[in-house]
Amino acid sequence: MSQAEAVAHTGAGRHRNPLWTFGILRSELATTLRRWRTLALLGVLAAVPVLIGIAVKIETSDGSPTGPGRGDGGPAFLSQATNNGLFLVFAALAATLPVFLPMAVGVIAGDAIAGEAGAGTLRYLLVAPAGRTRLLLTKYASTLVFCLLATVVVAASALAVGVLLFPVGEVTTISGTQIGFGEGLQRAGLIAVAVAVSLTGFAALGLFVSTLTGSGIAAMATTVGVLITVQILDSIPQLSGIHPYLFPHYWLSFADLLRDPVYWDQMVKNLGLQGLYVAVFGSAAWARFTAKDITA
């Protein structure tokens, strides 16, 4: 058996081994999470709840109310944070979901394929017996892990700041009923998962954009540009007819998890919409990437 045949035989065996897939994913996650850019993004996300908590603490230090009750806008949960620090988790997620969280996801997703092509490493990744489909799925899975990690970082930072700066106790739901702090923590965990799921459709869109170019910066900029454009479209009342089809339209439906009983209608619509975006743009990314001429 020649050396080339031996390599091919070994590669085929690894390709059939499910553990090889997990090895690729583990390697991809380790590479992604070690990058200074990823750490910087997570650091910024962790800092946002700290700044919100300090601002609320300073503003209410004289006993004055804050938030929508004063008519100056802000997340709907912000006015409750001074009474229960757990509400800072909900306020921080509501504040970061429209811009900060998706922008961070857009950077990771946009760089997934285009960054490798720009660095000249994509061709070498495909030399390994991973295959284009498996590599694409690994990149998307890594992006989904980042979605969850980024959301957990925001929630954990907000919880820590909320406990340090404000009292904690029973949680008053949007419906006006009281639930225990333990159940409130469970609701906060469910909300964090719901927020992470809300980003899956945008992550698939970013991955598709990443297959269209060999420049990581261009892919990231385009993905973030699409985010800003769609957010603007979703805020124009005259375009209400298309709003239910825009990926961020139901993002804030996680607030319904704080109702008693929980309202599921909007969250189910959000789940279906994200699934549609994953199917459409995931398929488009696969079609583009599997047919793409890799030169770098």
Give structural notes.
- The chain is an all-alpha fold and 296 residues long.
- It has eleven helices and two strands; from the N terminus they run H-H-H-H-H-H-H-E-E-H-H-H-H.
- The protein has a two-stranded antiparallel ribbon.
- Helix 3 runs antiparallel to helix 5, helix 5 (100-119) packs parallel to helix 9 (200-210) and helix 7 (132-165) packs across helix 9 (200-210).
- The two termini are 30 Å apart.
- 38% of the residues are buried.
- The model is unreliable at 1-16 and 67-74 (pLDDT under 50).
- Spatial ordering of strands, largest sheet: 1-2
Indicate the radius of gyration in whole angstroms: 22 Å
Morphology = globular
E-strand count: 2
Fraction of residues in helix? 55-70%
* Mean pLDDT across all amino acids: 84
Structural class per helix/strand content? mainly alpha
Q: What assembly state would you assign to the polypeptide chains in this entry?
A: single chain
